[in-house]
């Protein structure tokens, strides 16, 4: 039996369990299944996947979860301590008991995809799949074929959402399962919001999450988008995020990857109107034999658009990281600015990074730059800290955190920043703080 056939058999079994559904949904499922069957899983012979081997997913035997049973105590141990509007999924199944949408403004809709399709499927049908089609990748096609749950967020024009909107995806240990969440966000003109995707789970979980997110920003909208991925080290995680930006919009992505055995992120932003601005900030931390692959692309499709990207990788043990970032400037998209930086820190001689920053420019009045560096901790700086009474493990943790500081300083949510700091540097003595650390590290290297 082929790798694809196993997934197709599961899909066929699920289809027989479903009630009748609108014609357009069935047609899109069929298109996703047909595309997936035609192309199959990518291999390392495919340029976009040359550094990432997905056989652990393709050859996996994943079921579909039927329930969202998870206690409040289990969830509390994993969730972010935030005052937020919360939508929770357990192995891809919506949990109303673990969600909290109390006091959600009338001008904001946050609801599971299943309910959105039941209540008003016509309103979802137009935007769903418009940015990420089944042709984008085998995983996008697979997501569309299995598409039945996820989140829909709609923000009315002029609305400022005071609290973050948290989409929480929890993974249970036990029989390996797969989930294919679909996220749709429509931010009205001049609205402003913070969206958080959080992936976490029980330590021994070995599940597969395949998420597709489509984010659409109308004129003047501002969206701060946090993706904190701290899945168990046995989980596999594939994500495709596609952003459409109209005139004068501002989108800021904070892509923070800490967990997962195999992780692939595709992040694409289309700057389609003058004054649109996108900021990609990323930090990926790998240990053991983790594999983390980040592919990003910024499409400057209009003049007077702006992008800035700063990704940092920290790899220990035998971890493998991939960064492939591309800035594309369309013909006649004059007076744009596009900057890209990727820096990597290897904490082990066996850790490995493949970095490939790219520029593709078809206009002549632009400001663009890109670059990548890879190095190790400065032994002289470690020695200098140890002469001040700091043990070696703490010294290494401090300097590693200093390296991550340029990204973490931009994280406005303390609960998120603290999770990242703990993963990257361990629990440090309370007398150290990140702000003073960066200054101290610089002075030690002078």
UniProtKB/TrEMBL annotation:
Show where the SUF system FeS cluster assembly SufBD N-terminal domain sits. 18-165
In this protein, which residues make up the domain named SUF system FeS cluster assembly SufBD core?
Answer: 177-403
Q: Which Pfam families match?
A: SUFBD_core, SufBD_N
Q: What top-level branch of life does the organism fall under?
A: Bacteria
Q: Which family does the similarity line name?
A: Belongs to the iron-sulfur cluster assembly SufBD family.
- Spell out the protein name for this chain: Fe-S cluster assembly protein SufD
**Species name for this entry?**
Vreelandella janggokensis
Q: Which gene encodes it?
A: sufD
């Amino acid at each position: 039996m082929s790798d694809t056939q196993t997934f197709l058999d599961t899909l066929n079994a699920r289809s027989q369990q479903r009630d009748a559904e609108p014609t357009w949904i069935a047609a899109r499922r069929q298109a996703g299944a047909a595309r997936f069957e035609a192309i199959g899983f990518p291999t390392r012979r495919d340029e976009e996947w040359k550094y990432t081997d997905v056989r652990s997913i393709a050859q996996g035997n994943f079921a579909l979860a039927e329930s969202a049973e998870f206690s409040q105590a289990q969830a509390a141990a994993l969730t972010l301590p935030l005052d937020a509007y919360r939508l929770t999924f357990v192995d891809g199944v919506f949990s109303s008991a673990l969600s909290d949408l109390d006091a959600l403004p009338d001008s904001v809709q946050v609801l599971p995809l299943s309910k959105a399709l039941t209540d008003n499927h016509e309103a979802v049908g137009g935007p769903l799949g418009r940015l990420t089609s089944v042709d984008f990748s085998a995983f996008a096609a697979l997501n569309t074929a299995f598409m039945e749950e996820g989140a829909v967020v709609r923000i009315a024009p002029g609305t400022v959402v005071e609290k973050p909107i948290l989409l929480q995806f929890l993974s249970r240990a036990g029989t390996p399962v797969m989930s294919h969440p679909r996220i749709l966000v429509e931010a009205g003109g001049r609205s402003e919001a913070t969206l958080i995707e959080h992936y976490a789970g029980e330590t021994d979980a070995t599940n597969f999450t395949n998420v597709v997110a489509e984010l659409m920003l109308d004129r003047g909208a501002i969206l701060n988008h946090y993706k904190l991925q701290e899945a168990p080290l046995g989980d596999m995680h594939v994500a495709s995020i596609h952003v459409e930006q109209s005139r004068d919009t501002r989108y800021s992505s904070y892509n923070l990857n800490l967990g997962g055995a195999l992780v692939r992120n595709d992040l694409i932003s289309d700057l389609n109107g003058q004054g649109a601005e996108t900021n990609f900030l990323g930090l990926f931390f790998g240990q053991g034999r983790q594999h983390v692959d980040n592919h990003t692309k910024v499409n400057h499709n209009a003049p007077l658009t702006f992008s800035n990207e700063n990704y940092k990788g920290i790899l220990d043990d035998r971890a493998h990281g991939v960064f492939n970032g591309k800035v594309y400037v369309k013909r006649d998209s004059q007076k744009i600015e596009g900057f890209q930086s990727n820096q990597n820190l290897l904490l082990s001689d066996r850790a490995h990074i493949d970095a490939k920053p790219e520029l593709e420019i078809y206009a002549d009045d632009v400001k663009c730059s890109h670059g990548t560096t890879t190095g190790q901790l400065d032994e002289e700086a470690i020695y200098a800290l140890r002469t001040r009474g700091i043990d070696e493990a703490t010294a290494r943790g401090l300097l590693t955190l200093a390296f991550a500081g340029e990204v973490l300083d931009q994280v406005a949510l303390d609960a998120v920043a603290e999770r990242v700091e703990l993963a990257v540097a361990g629990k440090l003595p309370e007398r150290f703080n990140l702000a003073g650390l960066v200054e101290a590290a610089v002075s030690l290297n002078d």
